[in-house]
Amino acid sequence: MAVVTDPAAPAASVPELPHWDMTPVFPGLDSPELGAAFDGVLAGMGELGALCDRHNVRRREALAVDDATVAAFEEVTERLNALSESLRTLSAYLHAFVATDSRNDLAQAKLSELQTEVVALEKLETRYSAWIGSLDVEALIARSSLAGAHAFALRKAAGEARHQMSEAEEDLAASLNLCAGTAWAKLHGTVSSQARRPRPLSRRPARRGRDRGRDAGAPDERRAGPRPPPRRAVRQAAYEAEPQGWETVAAPLAARHERHQGAVLTLNLRRGWPDALAPALFANNVDRVTLEAMHEACRESFPDFRRYLQAKARLLGRDKLPWCDLFAP
User: Fold this and answer.
1) 220 band by pLDDT with thresholds 50, 70 and 90
2) What's 205's DSSP letter?
3) Under 8 Å CB-to-CB from 244, ≥6 apart: which residues?
4) Which of 117, 144, 167 is the last residue of a domain?
5) Taking 80 as the threshold, does the pLDDT of residue 3 lie above it?
6) Is there a smaller number of Cβ atoms within 10 Å at the N or the C end of the chain?
7) Structurally, how many domains does the chain consist of?
């Protein structure tokens, strides 16, 4: 949610927010250094695609893990790792601007361009997982030190390969994800960061004594962050303002979310997952037994947490602890 100060306050009274210094990574969004890095990533994706074609990296009949296979695996994996590292730096750099200022048109344009180009890499990564699924992963790990260093990732790739559609269908899904999952994430980030509450928070005079000077004139949302404001009126006002802000953007976010989830559920079904929970568990490396054990541990701890929250409510002079007081100091 955007930080919004009182519209009636003079512009000069609005404090300047701090910004990350990104110049140690690249001098600027329009710098030649960033352009060279961008071109390098695009060239690397083309080279990786040619390498994958040369080694026929895709789902195949069961492959023997011989010297040629090990050599091909190590060459492709090292190239994929190097490209992924370069892409991670470039993506993090652009997100650092967009995440702090969604109105930065230059950063948004460059990020959109990068996301469009990255689709090609996502398709290659899908082919790579399918290829790994065609191999005896344990034999590969035994024969290659590089595979041994990537044992966890390789076993997971083999599991992912068992839930892939055909190569043509996965290719289409990756292309469509640009206007589904990627577009949804970008819309949510942009709309939510620019949402504004319908009215400014009321600012009451500071109390005398311990509260004096602590929060008078402080921007409200920032005071509702990691260090909750000591005055309950400010905490409650911030709590009430947040859903009011979300209501202003509820319709577009709900419509887009519904379409995105529909696409996700359809793909999960086509990929052979038994239910909506299974792919989430797989992605997070958790099985159902472990998840249920975690839930049971939470349920067992609830009585202690309730006693703590009831004690906190009494200290604050409340019969029950309202949500806005949950993290009160």
Assistant:
1) very low
2) P
3) 197, 198, 199
4) 167
5) no
6) C
7) 2
Range of the domain at 140: 19-167
Residues 159 and 299 in one domain: no
Q: Is 241 left (phi over 0), alpha (psi -120 to 50) or beta?
A: alpha
Instruction: With respect to residue 321, please indicate whether it lies within any of the assigned structural domains.
Output: yes
> Are the CB atoms for 6 and 204 separated by under 8 Å?
no
Nearest to 270 by CA among 192, 200, 172: 172
More confident residue, 260 or 130: 130
Which residues lie closer than 8 Å to 206 by C-beta, 6 or more apart?
Answer: 212, 213, 214, 215, 216, 231
Asked whether residue 74 is assigned to any structural domain, the reply reads: yes
Which residue has tokens 């929060």? 215
Residues whose CB is less than 8 angstroms from the CB of residue 166 and which lie 6 or more positions away in sequence, other chains included: none
| Cα distance between residue 150 and residue 174, in whole Å | 25
Q: Of the residues 134, 167, 200, which one is the last residue of a structural domain? A: 167
The string of pLDDT tens digits covering residues 149-187 is 999 999 999 999 999 999 999 999 998 887 766 666 776
141 in Cβ contact with 154 (< 8 Å): yes
Q: Are 60 and 138 in contact (CB under 8 A)?
A: no
Task: Find all residues with CB under 8 Å of 82, minimum gap 6, and list them.
Answer: 44
- Average pLDDT of the segment spanning 199-221: 41
Q: Which two structure tokens, joined as six digits, stand for 238?
A: 């911030």
